[in-house]
Specification:
This protein folds into 2 domains: 237 residues, no CATH class; 309 residues, Metal-dependent hydrolases (TIM Barrel, Alpha-Beta Barrel), CATH 3.20.20. Helices cover 28% and strands 29% of the residues. The chain contains 18 helices and 33 strands. Helix 7 packs parallel to helix 8, helix 9 packs parallel to helix 12 and helix 13 runs antiparallel to helix 15. The protein is α/β, with parallel strands linked by helices and 685 residues long. Strand 26, helix 8 and strand 27 form a beta-alpha-beta unit. It is globular and about 80 Å long. The termini are far apart. The N terminus is likely disordered.
């Protein structure tokens, strides 16, 4: 559902534009430039830039899956290319209104955005990082940085921007070659952005592995540019992986740890856990004398917890590493481009990149004016069924995921084929149908709790392929959970053993996030994050226009929690997923399971042991036992008493490869949360 909002918010910093050379010319004529927005090779939007000396006007927007950002902005630059006035109006991907302003007067900078207001001295000429700018923003930053002596400039509200040239390339148009360079721009978010400039520093493209914004006339370069961006990103992560992965090539003993037992829901006395190669080879008394050739890691009395599962991911290189550092050693990917996902898995399995064990879902969507650009598209039932077969033939796809534009009449045939081929069926409830009908059609699991509940409050003709599947949740306020229609669905879920992947944390964000307020789900860690992440945490997902609407959304969220508690009480199996990238967000998702009536120990079991067995990996994963794969993490506290303890991880083992998060987080601009355990390696003595 909303995972794409997060991806597109980062992508909303995507550039495009006119060169500063043109902007600072003596000509009074207006220069106009056009760019095309492509997602997975499909045109989804555009950007136009009009510039006259140091004055610019920008129009930007795109639509995917029935939603997308749009903005209109005007700005003025100093002679050195630094923004001195900037106004931005529009809406974010999910409709939150944008009214952002930045200005400099008498040497003082003032700004106002969704995250709040601020003021700072401007004498050192810092760069203001706009919160909801068009893609053109990154080009402005890049040009200013390239004119700076050390290509590093202080930013407002905080941080430092840096730029590096990382690759030369040649672009073509109508048979003509143009020399260009790829630059990486860092300091705003957790990962750098990549943009292509020609030799005159005109913007040619902004690219990621899935998303591209390309100068008009060069759209044919889309696939090549996205491949380059993917390779550059992979190269960055290969470098990080080589520096932070600890492969000891000898037995590793983690001493003085208490082990969480998901069967008894308790902690063991102090133990030593020995890892040999990829597996746990022994669990011994803490007094056992270590072997001479063992690496000794001091657990300092902390708790060892089995690796967690993110059950609703859409993996990227960045997400993959951050999940492992957060103790999330397994992820169920719920929809991705086949080539992107399979290459990522190959790189992880070949120890090129750091990442979790990934279980694949085959994403199938129907063609419509609102369809998602992710996954594979079908226009007929025959095509949809063939896509089921295609995913099964690729091996490793344990289920199909059905999306909102699928014709519900196709689902029985799709589900029957999937089951015949040994795959499960999960997904959204397609538009113009209900959860009851999809359960009868063959669903095994429903993704997102709103997909279940909307059938109780919407009229059949109301279209959930649009943003209405989010805004329509206001109607939950008056929902009677004891009503026949609600009980009918719950009974069907119980009788047919239907699981639900509620993605509670994303509903918390949507229903309770407000501009200027740090959202509840990130408060335990947001101060350690880069400035771009901090500002995003103070932005609402939806446009909440008045107190009545504010109250309705908050009450709707309370009704969601009440529904999930009722489901848990009825024995409906609830799996923890975020659709927000996992990692820190998964910690919050698990924390919210306490609202359903689960204890911290029960939640730890659900997030590890139960998920391993649910996906069929219980023989090797889900608990810390001799013979099982060494997937676990170490925290200083006792998460069976306070679940927040899982947010301060000092060590992670993923199949016997060891990581110390505090050693890695600075690579992402994250301030570490805890210390690094003491390690005694015989080879270093």
């Amino acid at each position: 559902m909303i995972r794409y909002f997060i991806a597109f918010t980062a992508i909303s910093l995507i550039l495009s534009c006119a060169s500063e050379n043109n902007m600072s010319s003596n000509s009074t004529s207006t220069l106009k430039e056009s760019y095309t927005v492509l997602l997975g090779g499909t045109k989804v939007g555009s950007m136009s830039v009009s510039s006259n000396i140091n004055k610019l006007d920008i129009e930007y927007g795109f639509k995917n899956n029935g939603r997308g950002p749009n903005s209109t902005e005007s700005l003025s630059l100093s002679d050195s290319g630094i923004p001195i006035n900037w106004t931005i109006d529009g809406a974010t991907t999910f409709g939150n209104k944008v009214s952002e302003n930045f200005s400099v007067k008498n040497g003082i900078a003032n700004w106002s955005s969704a995250a709040g207001t601020g003021q700072a001295d401007f004498s050192s000429k810092p760069i203001y990082i706009a919160q909801n700018a068009s893609p053109y923003a990154l080009y402005i930053y890049a040009k200013a940085l390239l004119s700076d002596d050390d290509q590093s400039i202080a930013a407002l509200p905080a941080g430092i921007l840096k730029i590096n040239k990382v690759k030369d390339l040649v672009l073509t148009e109508n048979g003509s070659d143009i020399d260009a360079h790829i630059y990486s721009l860092s300091g705003i978010d957790l990962a750098p952005d990549y943009l292509a400039l020609d030799k005159n520093l005109n913007l040619m493209a902004f690219v990621s592995s899935r998303f591209a914004l390309i100068r008009k006339g060069y759209e044919h370069e889309d696939e090549r540019l996205r491949t380059i961006a993917a390779e550059l990103n992979a190269s960055r992560f290969r470098d990080i992986s080589a520096r932070v992965t600890h492969k000891y090539n000898k037995p590793v003993r983690i001493q003085n740890v208490r082990i969480f037992d998901p069967i008894t829901l308790s902690l063991s006395p102090a133990k030593s856990v020995v890892v040999t190669d990829q597996r746990i080879s022994a669990i011994e008394s803490n007094e056992t004398i270590p072997g001479r050739n063992e690496v000794i890691i001091d657990g300092a009395g902390g708790t060892l917890v089995p690796g967690l599962y993110e059950m609703h991911g859409h993996m990227s290189d960045n997400d993959a590493l951050l999940n492992v550092l957060a103790g999330v050693t397994s992820v169920r990917d719920m929809g991705n481009e086949v080539d992107v996902l399979e290459l990522l898995i190959e790189n992880i399995e070949n120890n090129v990149l750091i990442g979790p064990r990934i279980t694949k879902s085959g994403f199938i969507e129907g063609k419509s004016e609102f369809n998602s650009a992710t996954g594979e598209l079908a226009s007929t039932q025959e095509e949809a069924v063939q896509l089921v077969r295609d995913y099964a033939a690729r091996d490793g796809y344990h289920q199909i995921k059905i999306y909102s534009s699928i014709n519900p009449d196709w689902v029985p045939a799709m589900a029957a084929e999937a089951h015949q081929l040994g795959m499960r069926v999960a997904g959204h409830i397609p538009a113009f149908t209900t959860a009851d009908e999809m359960i009868a059609a063959g669903y095994d699991e429903i993704t997102h709790i709103n997909q279940v509940m909307l059938g109780w409050v919407l009229n059949r003709e109301e279209d959930t392929r649009t943003l209405f599947r989010i805004t329509g949740m206001q109607r939950f306020v008056d929902l009677d959970l004891s009503s026949d229609k609600v009980q009918k669905t719950l009974n069907a879920m119980v009788e047919n053993n239907i699981a639900v992947d509620p993605t509670t944390v994303i509903h918390e964000l949507a229903m309770t996030g407000r501009n200027g307020e740090t959202r509840t789900g990130v408060q335990d860690y947001i101060a350690n994050m880069p400035i771009g992440v901090q500002r995003s945490a103070k932005s609402a997902l939806l446009n909440v226009s008045n107190p009545k609407e504010d109250a309705a959304y908050r009450k709707a969220y309370a009704k969601i929690l009440e529904t999930l508690k009722l489901m848990h009480d009825r024995g409906i199996f609830i799996v923890p997923g975020t659709d927000l990238g996992g990692a820190f967000e998964l910690h919050r998702e698990l924390e919210l399971f306490q609202e359903f009536g689960m204890t911290p120990a029960e939640i730890l079991r659900r997030g590890s042991y139960d998920m391993a067995n649910y996906l069929g990996y219980g023989k090797d994963l889900g608990s810390i036992e001799p013979g099982k794969l060494a997937d676990f993490f170490l925290v200083p506290g006792d998460p069976t008493k306070d679940l927040k303890a899982i947010k301060t991880i000092s060590l992670v083992s993923r199949g016997g490869d060891f990581y110390f998060p505090s050693e890695v987080y600075p690579e992402f601009g994250i301030k570490p949360f805890t210390g690094i355990p003491k390690v005694n390696n015989p080879d270093s003595n």
